[in-house]
Amino acid sequence: MEFIRTEDVHFTYDETHPEEPEKPLHDVLKGVTLSIDRGEFVALLGHNGSGKSTMAKMFNAMLIPAAGKVYVDGMDTADESRTYDIRRQVGMVQQNPDNQLVASIVEEDVAFGPENLGVEPVEIRRRVDEALKAVDMYEYRTCAPYKLSGGQKQRIAIAGILAMQTACIVLDEPTAMLDPRGRAEVMHTIQQLNREKGITIILITHYMDEAVQAGRVVVLDSGRILTQGTPREVFSQVGLLKTHKLDVPQATDLAFRLRGAGCPMPHCVLSIDECVSALEPLLAQKGAEA
Amino acid sequence: MTPILEAQNLCYTYGTGTPFEKKAVQNVNFKIQQGEFIGVIGHTGSGKSTMIQMMNGLIRPTSGRVLLAGKDIWEEPKKIRAVRFRVGMVFQYPEDQLFEETVMQDISFGPRNMGLTDAEIEKRARDAAKFVGLQDELLDKSPFELSGGEKRRVAIAGVIAMDPDVLVLDEPTAGLDPAGRDVLLSEIVSYHEERGNTIMLVSHSMEDVARVADRVMVMNSSHLQMFDTTQAVFSQDKELESIGLQVPQITKIMSILKADGYPVHTCLTLEEAMEQLLPLLPRKGGTSE
Question: CB distance B204–A250 less than 8 Å?
Fold first, then answer.
């Protein structure tokens, strides 16, 4: 069932070219049409300047298209009377964990959203506990956020959105500032929320190893959709991704290069394990010949 | 040869005597020679940021010493400022610290504080801008008109312009896209090669560290757990994983193959892996030697 639909979305930031004031300098989005179903996990990929963060802000009416339409659960984001209803449906997690926590105690921070929605205190208590348990941070509920690691802070930010019971979470490079362990924690939480609670996830990232965990990958380039499909369909196009300055996981790249050198490696390798299981029979075969 | 930087029993405790007392760095010892490229890895909270902030005297050790070219940097606390010119520090997200009216003025801030002549300041600022690939026409712009990647370069140039003996970079590529990351890293490498000074690069990207570092420091729960050649450190994938770190994917693949009995050894880059694997794999047209 369709939850978010964008129709030929265009967007331009207010900047003009010094020599040609007629011509806008930053045509960030140049016609993006996309449909996202309820419960989907979509990764939005692209290099800096590809328009992916601008796109993310379209999903909860933080930005309104200059041309084209965005519908969230049937509501037009350009209709100001629906802005709050839309934001109740779509929550957003930003890149920097320090910019989005407001309270001095973890559980107060998580309660901030539902309090603003006028939820009954008993119900707030219930939602906060449930949200903190869902991101596996319940035992930290009385801690001060500044004492937590980056990964923990991001999970608190996610809990704050869960407590508002939004149907969809948009995460804009939530792991860019985290160490490997923090990244793994956040990715695990995202996966779990999608699978167990059926929450629609839109993950903006430039880490391919995160994008492969999604159900669908959409690659943006210069404000347009370059390609989309299952992770396997998208990442088998290694050449295309590389020419558009996108990163390819080393395991995928190794298989791609070996294939290019004439080795019978499979078309698309997504993980270390897949790479090893493709290599070992070949190594054994050649070893036996020798 | 006297090491350019040496740590002797370095310790730092936050909030001594309070209920929040936390030992951030404990008994760290190391020697770094002039011209080395050192990678520093460790998960969040391992003590690496505290450790590097002691290198230029931003934090004074609770006990232990930091020697710069053989001399204790805290011997004369009033002269600690001079140490900060010799050990340059680029913090995480340094673009947040730009403040001057033009890019040129911002880059010149450090050398100006060193009391250099105008001509020397200008020369250093231009050289530094060139090292980080900033176009001349950007120099008269406001730093706030630049893109994120350009701002980052301005901030780095500001530290390079002081021509430090040791350049410490805390996550210089964080938040950049893959292309931006590669370019910036290559610029740092060529700066290092040309100037021959010492670099300490703190990074969460094991791939980056594997590509550029001669030796790698691994910080774990306030201790310096390993300090060895990049090859030696990354061949210990199990130990690194147990402390919340990873090895580059390519290193992991090769070490699994090795553990399964195939005649390969651990390596750090894709190119090395290709070199090892190609002769061992069947190829189109039956290339049995």
Answer: no
**Residue A253 to residue B273, Cβ atoms within 8 A:** no
Cβ atoms of A151 and A182 within 8 Å: the answer is yes
Give yes or no for a contact between B209 and B201, defined as CB atoms under 8 angstroms apart.
Answer: yes
3-state DSSP percent of chain A in helix, strand and coil, to 5: 45, 20, 35
Which of B150, B28, B40 shows the shortest CA–CA distance to B95?
B150
Q: Which residue of B has its CA nearest to A244?
A: B179
pTM: 0.81
Tokens 């404000």, residue? A223
User: Do A232 and A249 contact (CB within 8 A), yes or no?
Assistant: no
pLDDT tens for each residue of A3-17: 999 999 999 876 555
Whether B102 contacts B143, CB under 8 Å: yes
Q: CB of A142 within 8 A of CB of A106?
A: yes
Q: Which residues of B touch A206 (CB under 8 A)?
A: 177-178
User: Domain limits of chain B?
Assistant: 5-247
Residue tagged 């008993």 (tokens): A122
Residue A180 contacts residue B244 (beta carbons within 8 Å): yes
The number of angstroms, rounded, from the C-alpha of B240 to the middle of its chain's C-alpha atoms is 19
Which residue in this structure is represented by tokens 């509920």? Answer: A141
Rounded to whole angstroms, the Cα distance separating A133 from A163 reads: 11
Could you tell me the two tokens for B139? 């120099």
- Contact (CB<8Å) B256/A276: yes
State the pairing for strand pair B5-14/B22-32. Answer: antiparallel
Burial B208-219, CB ≥16 within 10 A → b, else e = bbbbbbebbbbb
Cβ contacts of A275 on chain B, cutoff 8 Å? 253
Domain extent listing, chain A: 2-248
| CATH architecture of structural domain B5-247 | 3-Layer(aba) Sandwich (3.40)
Element (H, E) at A276: helix A272-289
CA distance B196 to chain A (A): 30
Q: Answer yes or no: do A283 and B281 touch at CB < 8 A.
A: yes
Q: Over pLDDT 90: what percentage of chain A?
A: 58
Residue B264 is which amino acid?
Answer: V
Q: Are B16 and B23 in contact (CB under 8 A)?
A: no
Which residues sit opposite B30 in a β-bridge?
B7
ipTM exceeds 0.90: no
Separation of alpha carbons A138 and A148, rounded Å: 13
For residue A265, pLDDT beyond 60: yes
Instruction: Tell me if the domain spanning A2-248 has CATH number 3.40.50.300.
Output: yes
Q: Cα A121 to chain center, whole Å?
A: 32
pLDDT above 50 for B288: no
What's the pLDDT tens digit per position in A16-37? 555 555 555 568 899 999 999 9
Contact B11/B62 with Cβ under 8 angstroms?
A: yes
Tell me the one-letter amino acid at B5: L
Strand duo A41-45 + A200-205: pairing: parallel
